[in-house]
Amino acid sequence: MKDLARWLIGRGTPYLVLALPLALTAFATAYVVFLTGALGGHALFVLLVGLAVSTALFMIARAGRSARVAAVAQLDEAQEALARHNQRLRILHAIDRAIVAGDSPDAIAGATIQPLRELIDVPRAIVNMFDLAKGEVEWLAAAGRRRTHIGPGVRYSIRLMGDVEALAKGEPQIIDTHSLPAGPDKEALLASGVERYMAVPMIAGGELIGAISFGGPPGPFPRDRVGIAMEVATQLAIVIMQARLRERVARQAQELELRVRARTKDLEAAIRELESFSYSVSHDLRAPLRSIDGFSQILLEEYHEKLDDDGKKHLARIRASAQRMGELIDDLLELARVSRAELRREPVSLSDIAHELVSELRNGERGRAVRCEIQDGLVAKADPRLMRVVLANLLGNAWKFTSKVPQASIAFGAEPRSGNSAYFVRDNGAGFDAAYIDKLFQPFQRLHGESEFPGTGIGLATVQRIVHRHGGRAWAEGSVNGGATFFFTLPSAKAQDGRGASALVDSGTPPA
C-alpha cells in the first residue's frame, strides 16, 4: 500500500488526473444515451468534449510533474553544492586555526587531506613535498578510504607528478597510471584503484614546493572539485612556507644564542684575566716606581750642590714622571677593584654622600667660592661604597673644571628620563667638545691638556663601569666653555621626590 501511495503521489498523478475526467465522461455519455434512448449526436458530443478535457488535464498534470521533478533535481544539486561549499570552508578554517596555533606542517596536512579526499570523492589523496635537487617526492600526508598516513618516509620519483615545469607555472597535471613505466610505484597505484590522477601544484612566494595529488577510476575531474583542491593547495603551501621560515628563524636564533653565550663566556674570561693581569702588573710596578722617586729625591737633597741646573731639572722631571705613573697605577688599581668587587645592594642616600663629598672638597680648597646645590631626599638601592666612588669622581670633576670660572656653580639632583630617574651632576665649567663625546668614558682619554686640568682620564671610565654593573647607563651633555652635565641611571633605584627641599650651600659655608 505504501508503494502504491508513493506511486500515486509521484509518477501516478497524471494518470489519476486522466482517470477522473474519463470516468465523468463515460457517466455523462451513458446518461445522455439513457435520456435519448439511442447513441445520437448529443451523446457523441458529450463523449468528444470529455475526451478533449481529459487529454488536456492529463498533459497539464504531466507537464507539472516534469517541472516539479526538475525543481527537485535542481534543489538537490544546490544542496549538494552548498554542502561541498560548507565542507570546503571547514577545511580552510581548520587550516587557518592550525596556522594560528602554530601546528607543524605534517599535522596540518594530516588533518586536511582526509576531509579533502572525501570532498572531491576520490579513493586516494596525497600531499607531496618536492626535493627538486634529488628529483624526488616525499609524502607529507596521504589518505585512503581505510587509513591516513602522516609524516615523511615514502619517497618516489618526481616524474610521477607529470611536467614539473608546467606545475611551476601553476598548471595542474593529469597522469594516466597505465602510461607510467612498469615498476613498484605503478603497481601500488593500480592496486589502490588509482588509474588516473591529477597533481595540483603547491606554490608559495613563486616557489614550487610540492603538489596535492588525487585520483581513482578513469573519468573526468569536475571543475569545481579541482578548484577546491587548488585552493587547499595554495593554503597548504603558505602554511608550509611559514613553518619553514619559523623553523629557520628559531634555528638561527638558537645558534646565535649559543654563539653569544660562548663569546660572552670567552669575553668574561678574557676580562677577568686582563683585570687580574692589570692588577698584578700595577701592583708590581708600584715598588720600582717608589724606588725611582725616592732615589731621585735623595739625589736632589744630598747631592744638591754637586748637580748643575740641567741635572736638577732632569731629576725633577724623573720624579714628576714617576709620580704621574704612580697616579695612573693607583687609578688602574681602583678601576680593577670596582670591576671585581662584589655588589652589595642596599638603600643608600645619594644626597647625604653628595653633601659629605662637597664638604671635603671645600675643606681641601678653602679659598674657592663655589655655589653648590644638592637635591635632598635622593635614595637609591645600590652599593654604598661604589656610589661614593661615582659621586666622588663626578663632583670632583665638576669642582676641577670650574676652577677657572669666576662664579662657579655645581648642582646634583635627579630628573625623569624615559620613565626612570636620571641622576645628574651639572656644572658651568670648561665643558667639552661634543664631537669627541665618545672618548669621555674611555680610560686615559682626555679632552683637556695636563697643563690645563690635571688628571689621568680614569675617573669617568670608573663611573661607567660601576653604573653598568648596577644595570644602568651613563652619558653626558655639554659644550666648550658652556659647562657639562653627567647623567647616570640605576634601574633599581627608588628615588624620593625632593622637590622644594634643595639645600643651597653658599660659597665658603660647608653644609651642616
In short:
The chain contains eleven helices and 15 strands. With 512 residues, the chain is of the alpha+beta class.
Low-confidence stretches: 4-9, 493-512
Taken as a percent bin, the fraction of beta residues is 15-25%
Level-2 CATH architecture of the largest domain: 2-Layer Sandwich
Order of helices and strands: HHHHEEEEHEHEEHHEHEEHEEHEEE
Helix count, DSSP H or I runs of 4 or more residues:
11
Report Rg.
49 Å
Q: Tell me the number of strands.
A: 15
Based on secondary structure, the structural category is alpha+beta
The CATH C-level name of the largest domain is Alpha Beta
Largest beta-sheet characterization: 7 strands, antiparallel
Estimated helix fraction: 40-55%
- How many separate structural domains? 4
Which fold name fills CATH's third level, the topology of the largest domain?
Heat Shock Protein 90
| Intertermini distance | 119 Å
Overall 3D form:
elongated
How much is the average pLDDT? 77
**What is the fourth-level CATH superfamily of the largest domain?**
Histidine kinase-like ATPase, C-terminal domain
